[in-house]
Amino acid sequence: MNRQFILNLANELIVDNFAGGGGASTGIELALGRHVNIAINHDPEAVALHTADHSQTRHYCESVWEIDPVEVTQGRKVGFDRLFLRKGCHKLQCGIDHHPPSNHA
């Protein structure tokens, strides 16, 4: 029988970048047994929806490209960071004009 690898994340932050409706955060919470500490998205509607579903999470309505990770985490270690990036544009990852920031194209 294979042994299960247990992540010791008790004292580390869990961050959900590009937090939208909260489905990924819910999955993270179910998998790890604790809530997401920080959620980030530039879209006010996405942040409002995520806040409604995850009120215990600290929310930031800012671009993940512009937010200061040291300030947001207050220097604490991040144990799990959901960050999915792909070349090109995704509606939740781009600005209102649906183009990625020029310095990250």
Which tags fit this structure?
4-stranded parallel beta sheet, 105 residues, 3 helices, alpha/beta
3D architecture notes:
This protein has 105 residues and is an alpha/beta fold. The protein has one domain: Vaccinia Virus protein VP39 (Rossmann fold), CATH 3.40.50.150. β2, α2 and β3 form a beta-alpha-beta unit. The longest helix has 10 residues. It starts with 12 loop residues before the first strand and ends in a 23-residue tail after the last strand. About 14% of the residues have low confidence.
Kindly state the mean pLDDT as a whole number? 77
| Count of extended strands | 4
Helix vs. strand class: alpha/beta
Number of helices: 3
Explain briefly what this protein structure is.
By secondary structure, the chain is an alpha/beta fold.
Topology:
Layout: E1 13-17, H1 23-32, E2 38-41, H2 44-53, E3 58-61, H3 69-73, E4 78-82
Parallel strand pairs: 1-2, 1-4, 2-3
